[in-house]
UniProtKB/TrEMBL annotation:
The keyword Cell membrane applies. This is Sugar transporter SWEET. The chain crosses the membrane at residues 6-23, 69-90, 97-117, 129-148, 160-180, 186-206. Belongs to the SWEET sugar transporter family. It holds the Pfam family MtN3_slv. It is found in: Cell membrane. Mediates sugar transport across membranes. It is a multi-pass membrane protein. InterPro entries: SWEET (IPR047664), SWEET_rpt (IPR004316). The keyword Repeat applies. Keywords: Cell membrane, Membrane, Repeat, Sugar transport, Transmembrane, Transmembrane helix, Transport.
């Protein structure tokens, strides 16, 4: 195998491994819901937005013919749908949850109808869909900034997950490198905020968490 092909395979494998690892962090919420038979302290919106994001990138990957994108987002969509179904099962306020789900799915369906029916040129369709996926992913990465301001205000990192921060950094970095290899700005650009927000979270752990400095030192020595 040539060096370029080997690098592509390694980057592709890293993207799959790290992304599925990040998606699997939701399994702890799934376990919590099943054990407590409630959705207390579990947020629904991240499941829903991630599912829509996965379905969007799955369409982009299918249109581009990229099996790394297809594999990651197909598995991700299945996992997020599972989280949503379990949340709905144990949630008492089903009406509000169903309203959020219906609204986002309607937006997704309208978007797909636009891309597939009103944009006949495949290359133009790929660009429009890539732009949509990029904007949606960037909004997902930037949405937790409100939580980061609360961390600074309260000087407590209780709202943050250290393992998820590591998973997000590895995932964003691998996809950024993979996007550079493919010369695909729609993959590169939306993952840069993920790297930035991850480093901000590391800094917050170091500054405000009682054991944050020890955790960061231990992680860098692995």
């Amino acid at each position: 195998m040539e060096a370029g092909g080997l690098a592509d395979s390694l980057l592709s494998g890293a993207c799959v491994l790290f992304t599925l690892g990040m998606f699997s962090t939701g399994l702890s919420d799934l376990k919590h819901m099943r054990m407590t038979r409630s959705v207390d302290s579990v947020q629904f919106l991240p499941f829903l937005t991630t599912d829509v994001n996965n379905l969007s990138w799955l369409s982009y990957g299918a249109l581009k013919g990229n099996w790394t994108l297809i594999t990651v987002n197909a598995v991700g969509a299945v996992l997020q749908t599972l989280y949503i179904l379990v949340y709905l099962h144990y949630c008492h306020r089903k009406r509000a949850v169903l309203l959020q789900t219906t609204t986002l799915l309607a937006v997704l369906v309208l978007g797909f109808a636009y891309f597939w029916l009103l944009v006949p040129d495949p290359e133009m369709r790929l660009q429009h869909l890539g732009l949509f996926c990029s904007v949606f992913t960037i909004s997902m990465y930037l949405s937790p900034l409100a939580d980061l301001t609360k961390v600074i205000r309260t000087k407590s990192t209780q709202r943050l997950s250290f393992s998820l921060t590591i998973a997000t950094l590895l995932t964003s970095a691998s996809w950024t490198l993979y996007g550079f290899r493919l010369k695909d700005p729609y993959i590169v650009v939306p993952n840069l905020p993920g790297i930035l927000t991850s480093f901000i979270r590391f800094w917050l752990f170091w500054k405000y968490s009682p054991g944050g400095r020890q955790e960061l030192s231990a992680s860098t020595n692995l």
